[in-house]
Design goal:
Oligomer: single chain
Helix content: 55-70%
Number of domains: 2
Distance between the termini: 103 Å
Radius of gyration: 30 Å
Low-confidence stretches: 1-5, 178-184
Shape: elongated
Length: 184
């Protein structure tokens, strides 16, 4: 399996070839994934990266299997730490992210209710409303973004606003009060 080093007459490990790699994956792949699953939600990524590192080695390790386990462990622990840092950063960013709606002490609409209503909208409607109100885009610009006509962008905007109005329970200010008709 190894080459003979003529200068020292010792065996050097042969480079990793396709046959060895296939054997390692077949014989040790599932166990390596199970081993990696102790630390990471994506154990197959750690195993794959370890195998890639093995293939890149100019001089492969003498004992390949223990080396793979060590590398898989290190990669998995690193992935878990990375994920933990990512969660902390995302949580911190969520806490300092500006709110879509600022609470209005004297207003009728609660900012959290309005945010929940906006999040509940169909993606196309929410996308157009956010692009129009917060992005300041024109309906022509929104049409370019969503790949539709400007009239479709406007229609989605109006429909989205109507769905928001219904979701938060605010009557339309343009609706006429029919009670005067009944009293005549």
């Amino acid at each position: 399996m190894g080459r003979v080093n003529r200068a020292s007459d010792q065996r050097e490990p042969a480079p990793v070839n396709a046959d060895l790699l296939e054997r390692l994956v077949t014989e040790h792949g599932p166990a390596l994934e199970l081993f990696a699953a102790q630390w990471t939600d994506a154990p197959e990524d750690s195993v794959q990266e370890a195998l890639l590192q093995l293939v890149r080695q100019a001089k492969p390790p003498e004992r390949v299997v223990p080396w793979l386990y060590r590398v898989v462990r290190n990669l998995s622990v690193s992935a878990a730490r990375r994920k933990s840092r990512q969660r902390r950063h995302e949580a911190a960013a969520a806490g300092i992210r500006p709110r879509w709606f600022q609470p209005d002490a004297g207003g009728e609409i609660d900012a959290d209710t309005l945010t929940a209503a906006l999040v509940s909208l169909v993606g196309q409607h929410r996308e157009v409303i956010v692009a129009r109100i917060w992005g300041g885009l024109t309906f022509e610009q929104i049409a370019e973004v969503i790949g539709a006509s400007s009239s479709s962008a406007h229609r989605r905007y109006v429909e989205g606003l109507e769905q928001l109005r219904i979701a938060i329970g605010v009557p339309c200010p343009n609706e006429t009060n029919s009670s005067w008709i009944e009293s005549s």
